[in-house]
Amino acid sequence: MNRIPVWIDCDPGVDDAVAMLLANWLPELDIVGISTVAGNATLPITTENALKICNLMKKNYPVFSGADRPLMREYEAGESFHGPDGLGGARLQEPSRRAESLPAWDAIYEAARQSEGRLELIALGPLTNIAIALGKYPELPRYLRRIVLMGGSATRGNCTPAAEFNIHADPEAAQAVFRSPVEKVMCGLEVTEQAYLTAGELAAITAHDSAVCRFLREATPMLQEKNTAAGLPGWAVHDACPVAYIAHPELFSGREAGVFVETRAELTFGKTVTDLYSDKKFEEKNTFVVLDIDRPAFAALLERAVTKS
Ligand code: RIB
Ligand code: CA
């Protein structure tokens, strides 16, 4: 099988952890590298978490630390659904190694160049590292197959009524990414809030006596509680969507649209403004917006990845 080279830029985060577990398990994907950004927790914590999750997977994927704050403002912890340690209080072994010395943006560029244009960039946190890479290396789009990101929404917000967390955390970076010529796929809240596991499904998936299942049993109760308190039917495993999309696009559907980011307004700061549902359209359709998912098939994929990891 001609495996797809992927790079995961993330802010672990429990759903980032599941995305990493899924990408590691899927035979269609080949994880080239992992980079971390401040988001769900501070950069030292998200970096340590990425190393811990690699430990959990018994893999030594290279981990590169990136931006500890957004492009144009101070880092704000915000209301973290993932707890102060970023992993819901789950106990994992201390990392047995450190992150690589190269900054994330340089590592992303080097990996893209070596992949001869096949590398798919999976973005699961604030887009700061990717915006820096695009700014420092204007030729980067030539070497990337596409960017598949979890972030934004055409209709709602989970950080403010208008904005989704990853975009709101660094709107200027997100604007730079959406304005870049790289092919983009946006897994926004329309699809990721459909990508949930009910409490019963989660209990069944994590009932097995393995280190991965124990991790998720410990890491997910707070998220399950907060998601259901927000009126969702279960825990939305947001970050697993871009990973599943690359390996199994047949589970998803969506539409091309124009997508740009509000970086100035007070009320809609960090909103991904799309022309999906408007009469007036942007001049360009720069993003494929994923809108629907075959949830049972997605849940089955997660079950196999978690129980077989
Ligand atoms: O809005 C959901 C996103 O914010 C996910 O990436 C989650 O990990 C948090 O970072
Ligand atoms: Ca994330």
Structural descriptors:
309 residues, alpha/beta, Inosine-uridine Nucleoside N-ribohydrolase, Chain A, eight-stranded mixed sheet, two-stranded antiparallel sheet, binds alpha-D-ribofuranose, binds calcium ion
Description:
With 309 residues, the protein is of the alpha/beta class. The chain has one domain (4-308): Ribonucleoside hydrolase-like (Inosine-uridine Nucleoside N-ribohydrolase, Chain A, Alpha-Beta Complex), CATH 3.90.245.10. It is 38% helix and 18% strand. It contains 13 helices and twelve strands. The protein has helices spanning 14-25, 43-57, 104-114, 128-136, 140-143, 165-169, 171-179, 189-192, 199-205, 211-219, 221-229, 240-247, 295-308, and strands at 4-10, 29-36, 63-65, 119-123, 144-150, 184-187, 196-197, 235-236, 252-257, 259-261, 272-274, 287-293. The strands form three sheets. The chain has an eight-stranded mixed beta sheet with strand order 3-2-1-4-5-6-12-9, with helices on both faces. A two-stranded antiparallel ribbon has the order 7-8. Helix 1 links the parallel strand 1 (4-10) and strand 2 (29-36). Helix 1 (14-25) packs parallel to helix 2 (43-57) and helix 4 (128-136) crosses helix 7 (171-179). The radius of gyration is 18 Å and the shape is globular. The mean pLDDT is 96. The structure holds alpha-D-ribofuranose and calcium ion. Calcium ion is lined by residues 10-11, 13, 16, 39-40, 124-125, 239. Calcium ion binds next to loops.
